[in-house]
Structure formats: C-alpha cells, structure tokens
Amino acid sequence: MMRGMDPMAYLPDMEAIPEDIMNRVLTSRAAYNEGAFSGADVERALQSDRLSADGFAALLSPAARPYLEEMVRRATEETRRHFGSSVYLFTPLYLSNYCENHCVYCGFNCRNQIRRMKLDPQRMEEELRAIADTGLEEILLLTGESPAASDVEYIAAACAMARRHFKMVGVEVYPMDSREYAHLHESGADFVTVFQETYDPIRYGELHLAGRKRSFPYRFHAQERALRGGMRGVAFGALLGLADFRRDAFATGLHAHLIQRKYPHAEISISCPRLCPAGTEEPIDPQLIGEEELLQIMAAYRLFLPYANLTISTRERAQFRDQVIGRMATKISAGVSTGIGSHVSGEDTGDEQFEIFDSRTVAEVTIAIQSRGLEAVRNEYVYL
Questions:
Q1: C-alpha–C-alpha distance, residues 370 and 354, integer Å
Q2: pLDDT above 80 (res 347)
Q3: What H or E segment, with its residue span, contains residue 140?
C-alpha cells in the first residue's frame, strides 16, 4: 500500500514528466502572502485589460472582499464576452466505488466499510440509456481509484459504450500514463478531469496515507500526460477546505494557466468543489469557506482565465448554483447521483462518495437556466 512512501516520489512504473511547471506552481504557492495586498493592488488588478498572476493573487486576497460586487460584475462581462448566454449541461456516472487509496477525507477510501459495487456491462448499458433518455448529450464517467477493480480496459469499454449514447464523454478516474490516456481517447473519451485535492505537498502527504494516489507529482502531471495522449481538454481543481484555500485556488489557476500556455490547443476547465461530509472514520479539521469566499474565488478564476469553462458542483445549494451560472460558471451538472447503479431503480446499489446539496432533475435545472434568460446547451461539438 506504499504507506510511508515519500509523497514527492514516483513509483517505478509511473511515467515522469519534466518538473518545470510543478516547480513554478509550488514555488509561487509557497510565496503567496494573502496579507501583502492592499485595496490599491485590487483596484489596479480590476482596471487591467489582461490580469497577471500578481493581479490574480490580489483578487484572491482578503483585501478584495470589499470589491466583490465589482469583481462579479467584471466576471459576468467576461463570461458573456466569451461564452454568450450558453450554460452547458452534463451529469456524472459512477461506474465503481472500489478504491485502493487511503485518503482520510474521502468516502470511497479503502478503509471505509461501505457497500462496494462495480457496474457490469449490462448495468452500465442500462444506466447510460436511462441518463440519455433525459436528453443529456455529455457525460462524465467516474470510478474509485482502483486499477485492479477498474482497469484501463474496463474504463475503455465504458467510454466506447458511452459514445454510442452521448456526443461528449469525459473521464474522472485514477491518473494514468500517456499511452493509457491515448487508449481511452481512441475508445471515445476526449476530456480528463483530475483534482490535485491540495497543492500543499506536506498537507497532501498527511491526507493521502497509502495507495498510488500518495505520489503528488504523478497526480500533478496527469493533465499534461492526458494532452500528450491526445485528449482535447483537461480539467483542474483543488478540494477547497483541505488546506489554505486561497493558496490552493492560486495554485490551481496558475497550474491551468501554465498548461494553457504550453498546450494552446487544449480546452481548459476549472472546478471549485468545497469539502463535503463524506462519512469518513477519520475526521479532519477543514478550513471553513463560506459562499462569499467561493464567489470571490470563482470571480478571480474567470478574470484570470477568461476562456476556461468553470463548473459548479452539486456540492453547492441550488440557489447558489443558480446565482453563479452565466456570471462565472459555464457548466452545471444535473440529475446527479454519486451512488453506483442508482440511475435505474433497483436495490443493488453501491454507496455514495459524498453528500450532494442539489438533487434537481435535468428538466428542473434546464428550467432554472432558462428562467435567468440563459440558454441550456446539451452539446456543441461536431466530430468529423
């Protein structure tokens, strides 16, 4: 299980990537001083046509709180300039909740006594068909992080099956090598999401006690390996609350920015999840992040990365999700269940990863989008 392994090390079978971007992100994160910024720094950032990394840091600082209304107004203008009135709809499908990692904050961790389940091809087909019947055209396939229970061939088969029902297929699974991402891409996936959880290497080691996930650098470089494997786009995120949230938000944005500069063809997306109750046996002491702080982070992301999609999770209340779509958020999930096999009625379902706070159906979320004068977009990609 690799308990006690240096979290900054690779395992021998892991593909390594040059560390230049990781070193820049970690050095900048360590140097970030939230108290060093003034109102003048925030005003200067808001007046700039193109936000620098220093301006991004200022907008994430406590000094920016009095300027939140102005930040949201500017962020809304940027969102409308680059995305119009479009809000993209998708839903996740959990294929398996088996996991080989010991992450103290996660409901799927291997020490938790939960009902484990993995969809077989028949159940997978039934779940995909049920979701497709709601009218959605984009799906995100997820597993717990267990290469033994959900190997690459199993995930590739799921991607191929999903592409028969959906026009866009993304995956949020354990980090892989480039050749494995290439295999998933050839099987129908074209988007990869990997959360770094926290960009604090010391905290990362304290939270990820065992399993392949304990390797910080292998996880950090997953997006780059995915793009080298041919994926069209990649998503980034820190689980806000695990460590210093302002530093983690700064590192997330900088990581995405540097990958965008190195791979200008890549579609970049950012997620902003806050730590949710997950029924873990080992309680942690999370940093408390209110909705105002989350709003500030999302506005700062939008102004620093105007072309990036921003996804708002069902970890947030329906009212909050409705407030941020069209302003900062451009993607919203609907009809969500984080259990295994729960889209089709039946008793044999696996336990959920975390508690969700917006259980609205696809139709209900669509009405909410349209009621705000926005367009609910199912898909806009054409494959030739």
A1: 28
A2: no
A3: strand 138-143
Q: Are 168 and 132 in contact (CB under 8 A)?
A: no
β-strand 102-103 against 208-210: which pairing, if any?
antiparallel
Q: Which two tokens stand for residue 286?
A: 């999370």
What pTM, to 2 d.p., does this model score?
A: 0.95
Helix axes 53-60, 245-262, angle to 10 degrees: 160
Q: How far apart are CA 371 and CA 322, in angstroms?
A: 10
For 160, the token pair is 């191929």
Beta bridge partners of 118: 96
- How crowded is residue 187: how many other Cβ atoms within 10 Å of its Cβ? 20
Q: What letter does residue 286 receive in the DSSP assignment?
A: P
pLDDT tens, residue by residue, 254-267: 999 999 999 999 99
CB atoms within 10 A of CB 77: 14
Residue 215, Ramachandran bin (φ over 0: left; ψ between -120 and 50: alpha; else beta): beta
Cα 171 to Cα 6, 316, 321: the distances in Å are 28, 22, 23
Query: Would strands 86-96 and 331-333 be described as parallel, antiparallel, or unpaired?
Result: parallel
∠ CA 163-165-169, rounded to 5°: 40
The torsion defined by the Cα of 131, 135, 138 and 140, in degrees rounded to 10, comes to: -20
